[in-house]
Amino acid sequence: MTPRPTIVVLGAGVCGLTSALLLARQNKYNIYILAQTFPGDLNPDPYYTSPIAGANSLPVSSSGTPAARWDEVTFKELWKLKDTVPEAGIHEQTTYVMDRGIDGNGVIGKWWGELLTDKPWFADVYPDFKLLKTPEDVGPAMSAMGATSGKQFKSVCINVSLYLPYLVSECLKLGVQLRRGFCTHISDVAAQAAVKPDLVVNCTGLRARFLGGVEDEKMVPVRGQIAVVKNVSRGMVNLSGTDDGPEEVLYIMNRPAAGGTILGGSYQKGNWDTTVDPQMAQRILKRCLQAAPEMVKPGQGVEGLEVIRHVVGLRPLREGGVRVEREEIGGVKVVHNYGAGGFGYQASYGLAEDVVGLVEESFGVKAKL
C-alpha cells in the first residue's frame, strides 16, 4: 500500500487553518500545521493578524477576477455555517455601504473598488441587495457625514475568538497534527515539524517577505487600527471615506456571541507600527458614534462608549495580488497561499479550494471538494 503523502502547512492564520482543513477532508494526506503562534496564545506575534481581524464579508473584489470567485465561494460556506454550526461564531447582519461620491480615486475608494459601483457582481449573491438612492434611504446620520448614496445587503460577521478555535478543532477531528516552531527558511520545515514533508503549503502572511527561499518583497503591511466596544449598532455600517485623513475609514460591525462591536479604522499601506495611536483612537470613536448615534443614550456622547480595548493589526497585503501557485524550492514542493491583505476571512474557503487543486496537481491525484 502506497503511504500517504505528508503535507506541512506553514502558518496558523485563517488561510493556513482553512487550507489544512480542506486538505484533511480529502482523506489522502498526513497533515501537519507548523506555526510559531496558534489561536489562543496570550502574547501573539504582531504579524499574526487573524486573531485581531474584524471580521466580516465585504466584497471589495472586482468582477471576473479570482478574488471575486474566492469571495463568492467563501460567502456561501460562511452563510451555511451561521445556521448549522453555532459554535463557529458567525451571524447574519444587515450591511450598509455608504458612498460620499468623492472618494473613488482615494485610498479607500481604490481599496473598495467595485463595492462602490451601482451594479456590483455580488448583487445576486448576497441576499436582499438593494441600492440606496435618496437621502431618506441613506438616513440623516450618514447624510450629515456626506453620504449621497449607498447599498444594503445581508452578510456575515465573525467572532474570530470562536471561529479560529473552531477551525483548529475541525482540523484535529480529522487527524491534523499541530507542531510549534519557527522557520527562517523553507528548508527548516522538516527540522521544525519533526517530519519530512512531501509538500509545504506556505501560508505565512507578512512573514513571506522574510522567509528564506521565498523573500517576497511584494508583501507589505497595511496598518489597521480599531476599537472594540460593548455598545451595539443597528448593523454593519461602512463609509467610503472620512474627513479625518485619506488613510482613515469608517466601519462598524457587531460580532456575535459577546464578541463586542468593532469600530474602525485605518488603511495605512507600508506602515509597520503596531502601537495604538491615541489621537486616531479618539477620531475613530467620534466618527463611528456620529454614524451610529444609537450606540449610546441621548446626550452621552463619546463617553458613553464602553471601550474594551484598542487594537492595531497589520494586514498582509501582496502588491499585484494574492500568491496562490506552485513552486519548487531547494527540492521541496511548495504551494503558496498568502497576501490576501484585509480579505483573508472572506476569501479563505475559495483560496483553500485553489490550494487543494494545486496540491492535486503536485501529486497527480484527484481532489474531492
TrEMBL record:
Pfam families named among the record's database cross-references: DAO
Residues that, per the record, bind D-dopa: 251, 315, 342
Name listed for the protein in its UniProt record: D-amino acid oxidase
Flavoprotein keyword on record: yes
Organismal lineage: Eukaryota, Fungi, Dikarya, Ascomycota, Pezizomycotina
Gene Ontology MF term list: D-amino-acid oxidase activity; FAD binding
One of the GO BP terms on file: D-amino acid catabolic process
Residues reported to bind FAD: 49-50, 204
Family that this chain belongs to: Belongs to the DAMOX/DASOX family.
Source species of the chain: Ascobolus immersus RN42
Cofactor(s) named in the record: FAD
One CC-aspect GO term: cytoplasm
Domain FAD dependent oxidoreductase: 7-355
The UniProt record lists the keyword Oxidoreductase: yes
Keywords: FAD, Flavoprotein, Oxidoreductase
InterPro entries tied to this protein: D-amino_acid_oxidase_CS, DAO, FAD-dep_OxRdtase
